[in-house]
Amino acid sequence: MAEHDEIKSQHFLKEIEQAIQVANREILNQRLPAITRKNIMPLAISVARLRGQYLAEAFKVAENDGGEPPSEEEIETLKKNREMYEEARKAFESLIHVIERGYVELGD
Questions:
Q1: Which residue, among 44, 25, 34, has the nearest Cα to 106 in the 3D structure?
Q2: Mean pLDDT within 26-43
């Protein structure tokens, strides 16, 4: 009996996975262009720029501290730069995920 339940569960999960793939393909292909090297690079470069901006701000805070804790304004600026970088990085990681899953069309 347990073996039958396991087979039934695996079959159910396979059907759900297929339905999720279909839904993702349909929705993402309506919203995104075919993914190419040309259109993915601006996003990758944007992430790199935001990473650079965040790290440059961290160095600036460190250079200006003079042995004192950073000001609230410096911390807020650093935090904003980190958040922008992290959001862009997460978006890029999400794009890589949908490419790996085959949810989006790939162009030349």
A1: 34
A2: 95
pLDDT score of 86 more than 80: yes
Per-residue pLDDT, averaged over 70-82, amounts to 96
Residue 65 contacts residue 93 (beta carbons within 8 Å): no
Q: At what angle do helices 72-101 and 37-64 cross, to 10 degrees?
A: 160
Q: For residue 32, what are its two tokens? A: 């995104």
Residues 44 and 88: beta-carbon distance below 8 Å:
no
Query: Is residue 81 predicted with pLDDT exceeding 90?
Result: yes
Sign of CA dihedral 70, 71, 74, 78: positive
Are 108 and 36 contacting, i.e. CB atoms less than 8 angstroms apart?
Answer: yes
